[in-house]
Design brief:
2 domains; alpha+beta; 5 strands; 55% helix; Alpha-Beta Plaits; 5 helices
């Protein structure tokens, strides 16, 4: 500790204004040591900010990229290991979609559908008062075809008719039915019901 204090005192006693800056070799040794330390510190600081700092920032950036790449690799590796399963699921979905699509009538099959509904009514011993297609309603992937059906008969016949339509191979849903007595025939009942069938919506439609 005494040596350090002595060095500090010697350094304080130096009058830097009287030192010959062109002859550093003849300076007092405390001044030379101080100048060497100062020059080394300046070089180290300059080297850090001029080179090492940029390398450190680049290292941090590369480390972040490494983490992201590892996560991406793990995700891709998981997907690759389950690729066959995904392909099987896609094949099953395409098969199911194809089966459902076949149940959706096209424009040319609508008359045939109306005939099938008429046959279900006749087979259920109902009097067909009217089967009237309504304007189409387009959705995102399909087009809805409403059909207003009016038939006359009894409750049991109505039940048989509804069951027959529900069992058709095409997709047909029934909505908003009403039953009332037919004015022309006091004992007969009149039912109005809306059937909805669907067709696949073509691209660009």
């Amino acid at each position: 500790m005494a040596d350090i204090n002595e060095y500090v005192e010697q350094l304080k006693s130096i009058n830097f204004s009287e030192i010959n800056w062109g002859r550093i070799g003849v300076w007092p040794w405390p001044a030379r040591v101080f100048l060497s330390v100062l020059a080394s510190a300046i070089i180290v600081i300059g080297f850090y900010f001029g080179f090492i700092k940029d390398l450190h920032l680049q290292l941090e950036s590369d480390q972040r990229k490494e983490i992201t790449l590892k996560e991406t690799f793990q995700k891709k590796a998981f997907e690759a290991s389950n690729l066959d399963k995904y392909r099987l699921q896609i094949a099953e979905m395409e098969e199911s979609f194809g089966a459902l699509k076949k149940q959706l009538p096209s424009d040319t099959e609508v008359p045939g559908l109306l005939e099938d509904i008429d046959e279900k009514g006749v087979g259920s011993h109902l009097e067909i008062d009217g089967i009237t297609p309504q304007p189409e309603k387009a959705a995102e992937f399909y087009v809805e075809l409403p059909i207003t059906i009016k038939v006359s008969g009894g409750y049991h016949e109505f039940g048989s008719f509804v069951s027959g339509i529900a069992g058709m191979p095409r997709i047909v849903t029934l909505h908003d039915f009403s039953i009332k007595r037919k004015k022309e025939m006091g004992s007969a009942l009149e039912m109005e019901i809306q059937a909805k069938t669907y067709r696949y919506r073509n691209l660009g439609e």
